[in-house]
Amino acid sequence: MTKDRWREIRALIEQDIMDGAKEPGSRLPTEPELAQLYQAGRHSVRRAVTDLAKAGYLSVEQGRGTFVQARPRIDYAIGRRTRLRRNMDAKGIAVSGESLGHERIPAPPRVARLLRLDEGAEVIVTRRRTLADGVPVNLGRIYHDAARFPDFPERRGANGSTTETYKSYGIGDYLRGETRIHARPARGDEARQLHQHPDMPVMVVRAVDTLLDGTPIAHSEVIWSAARVNFSINPDEDDR
Known about the structure:
With about 240 residues, the protein is α+β, with helices and mostly antiparallel strands. It has helices at about 5-20, 30-35, 40-55, 85-90, 110-115, 150-160, 160-170, 190-195, and strands spanning about 60, 65-70, 75-80, 95-105, 120-130, 135-145, 175-185, 200-210, 215-225, 230-235.
């Protein structure tokens, strides 16, 4: 038995996934079953499965098992008018979202500064998870001035999109005023909600959306699974 036997097992499982022999959503055999199947030690099997999970091929779900992970790779364009649904629809990806709750809180200092609010002003923070073709791709928080958008979460639920919700407030168009992106390790709850291995990194996108005159209307912090998105920056593109 070679010391790199785990790499051979990893390659065999990956090839089965790429060939469709193991379909997205299907459950991988248990560790003892895989050890018997590949005539290898459980340590080699465990290392191969862990490495595939880090790469996004497998989803390890506590108490349920290990599953073949559908791997939508999204090319996400960030421009003057960045719209989540438009980005997804253009690639033929079915996008859906679910609310993770909302609350009214005093604006954190950084949020107050970005939204040009007085210290202690209330904001509404809305939390959502986005899925692409049924696979979790991001977790987002969006902050709005509670005085200006007092029932934003309820309207967002009724209208089905942020753009349509802004229209209900009389805002027909808005721009991306600022975008900052950085990578970091996923936190435990983030990895769980994104169905990814804890060692797989995430991309954090912080943005400010503004009216056409530059007045900020929202600050968002979106955690993307790094294995499922490619960002392209097109600041001069008008993507209406």
